[in-house]
Amino acid sequence: MAAAAPPARPGAATDCFHCGLPVPPGTSFGFEADGQRRAFCCAGCEAVSRAISGGGLDDYYRLREAAAPRPARSEDCDELRLYDEPALQQRFARDAGAGEREASILVDGMRCTACAWLVEQVAARVPGVTSATAHFGSRRALVRWNPAATRLSEVLAAIRSFGYPAWPFEAGRLAALEAKERRTMLRRLWVAGLGMMQVMMYAVPSYIAGSGDIAPDIQRLLDWAGLTLTLPVLAYSGWPFFAGAWRSLANRALGMDVPVALGIAASFAASAVATVRGSGPVYFDSITMFVFLLTAGRYLEHLARARAGLGLRRLERYVPQAAQRLRDGNGLEAETVPAALLAPGDRVRVRSGDALPADGVLEGEEAWLNESLLTGESAALRRGRGEALLGGSVNAGSAFVMRVERVGSESTLATIERLMERALAERPRWVELAQRASSLFVAGVLVAALLAGLAWLTIDPARAPWIAISVLIVTCPCALSLAAPAAMTVALGEMARFGFVVSRGHAIEALAAATDVVFDKTGTLTLGRPRVLEVLPLGQVAAADALAIAAAIASGSNHPLDRALAEAGAGLRRPAIDSHCSHPGSGEEARIAGRRHRIGQASFCAALHGLASPIAWLHTADTVVWLADDAGWIAAFRIGDAVRPEAGRVVARLRELGLGVHLLTGDEARVAHRVAAELGIERVRSCASPEGKQDYVRALQREGRRVAMVGDGVNDAPVLGLADVSVAMGHGADLAQVRADAVLASGSLDDLVRAVDLARRTRAVLRQNLAWALAYNAVVLPLAFLGLVTPLAAGVGMASSSLAVVANALRLRARDRS
Amino acid sequence: MDILYLLIPLSVVLALLIGAAFWLAVDGGQFDDLDRPALDVVIDDDRPPPERDEVREADRAAG
């Protein structure tokens, strides 16, 4: 098997000191700290790292075990304000006494315990916060604040500014149940472990002593002591097995619990009778050890499930939908309010790309809406003035104004919530499969034990019950049932550590079996925001100086193209600007050193000097922005969606792993082919409709290929559902993440390669474990049949085979831990 | 060997006591977070963040 992908090690020469992603060549973000230069990949990482250093929080870098999440661009503060609405706070905050409020916060992006510490420190330093605790395992933080001194939105903004997306979280009944279950399981494990150790103490003397060495009354005392301590182990730790066996028998099914319950109950009854009568063998040590090992297996399984559930927990975060309500009159001034507070008759502005907050009618001339969430129809539909609009559909055209008609649970918006609930309720496929298979297995075990008992009844009636019990215990699928959860727990934990969050159990198996990786959307391979790709000087000014001028003019504006220019020129010395004005729709104008400069569309710039526009990049699909002063052209900038820095490496690595790489996109051919050519992807399908994408995936599947799909958008939801395994990018639309089997929360494609590699190793370990468990059973069963295995030996054998399985699974983790 | 008549029952009682102590510890939340406490030991928290000091001093001045 190939070696693991190069881990994004923090602090390496070419990697970002903060987030571990490679530093793009030609950038110069960085500063000196502790006599060492820290290089960063972007201004965001640098800012966060400066804040960490400046706040005396450098311990974080010393203690962390994984690179930090890359900080996202600053969010709309207006939307965070929604969390301050008292009407909404009822759902997630409560009074903590002494005039303070308390809320649970779901924090995404925590990679290790040092992250949890950092989040705590950051939250606690917001003036007005009285206490803050963060927990890495459950990804939650508990914050208590004084409403007179601060607002919840400021705490959230502070945590977010360090690169951890944070939402209030409805700590509902589910969370309380979960905590209770975890404590109960831990207690059961402990009681069984303690009982096992102590009962073994009472059993050992009789194993090592010769016959007659122990006085009979001491032996009886030891037996009684064993019985006393076995009782709580059986009654408390073993309770779930009896309950499970009873449940499955009541449902006329045979679960794994049936032979277990039968085995421990029968051996306990026989041992108890022997103890009371003072003659015959006792096997309390085997019983307690057996219960302990099974409980340990259950605990591991529980951990695996809890880890897998972390991905789904994203759904519990409470995101109120925001709406832009217009103030009275015909003005276009809008305020941000929670969608839940809208009333019929309100007028709402819907920006391009936003979802409609409620059902209503269109007030503008026309609107293009994407209703794929609600109807599955993915093409944008046109709606005219006065036509009905469905809440939850997405504005695919330009901004418009609508009048609200229906709100709340009666509106279509509630549909989305129902969709999400359905996603949560879905049961992992492998759980059902395992249950069906185990039913057959258990029937076989019971028949085998019965046969052994009957056979020995004719040979030696006194030994018959013990041999039947030995067969029951020895064939108990303990190692078998541990094999999968142990490997899964370790794999899920490792994946979560590097930012690959699995939300469906079958994702690991399917990822290991995948033969083709289909990148759905160009946006998966690109950064998804414009960047300056090329600078073409047109006059005497050098490219770098032209970029500096452009950056200086653009830096005041929020337009995406201007932001790209400002970012590209961030490290350069910019000329001073005397005056500045913007012409929406065409460009920006500024006076620099007494001369008028314009940046924007060609015709807008040409109006300044009257010269014909030069020819540049006629065939590009990217946007061209021009720069000119009153004497003539200065430069042209080609701005487009840049390929992720790690994408080329990732495609090459996936190929090495024997996977076919495809690009399947709805974008136009020129863009798709430029990206594909840059990355070396040969199989490209561009301009694909969602139906076309599904056909493409189906055609691959008909050839017997297993498809892993990587996507990021809402339109991708149907095709993500069709693929054998689907991975959504961490910053994609929420609904895509709900439908996906796994979420690439780190946002780095490198982790996809690591996940595939780890999934394959997990599959190998799983197969070894199953082979080992089956081989063990195959060897020991005949011996038990022949009466050569006492219940104790059966217990020891089972224990060691279980331990071997767990140890083998643990091999998965040490590998790429630095 | 008569002492065994005392020691063996005593060991049973001891095991039950340990179990009870652990039970209380779990209910007290001591096992809820198994990662953080290990980290708390190595973090220097003898440098209080400046903002908090100011707050405390302001409180003192007011009170």
How would you characterize the overall build of this protein?
Chain A has 818 residues and is an alpha+beta fold. Chain A is built from 27 helices and 29 strands. The two termini of chain A are 20 Å apart. With 63 residues, chain B is mainly α. Chain B has helices spanning 3-27, 36-40, 50-62. Chain B is elongated and about 55 Å long. The chains are: A alpha+beta (818), B mainly alpha (63). At the A-B interface, helix 5, helix 7 and helix 8 of A face helix 1, helix 2 and helix 3 of B.
Low-confidence stretches of chain B are 50-63
Number of strands of chain A: 29
Oligomer: heterodimer
Number of strands of chain B: 0
Largest sheet of chain A: 7 strands, mixed
Molecular shape of chain B: elongated
Q: What characterizes the major β-sheet of chain B?
A: none
Secondary structure: helix percent of chain B: 55-70%
Query: What value does the average pLDDT of chain B take?
Result: 73
Distance between the termini of chain B: 70 Å
Strand order of the largest sheet of chain A: 17-29-28-27-18-25-26
- How many whole angstroms does the radius of gyration of chain A measure? 32 Å
Shape of chain A: elongated
Helix-and-strand structural type of chain B? mainly alpha
The structure class of chain A reads alpha+beta
How large is the radius of gyration of chain B?
24 Å
Helix content of chain A: 40-55%
Low-confidence stretches of chain A: 1-12, 419-428
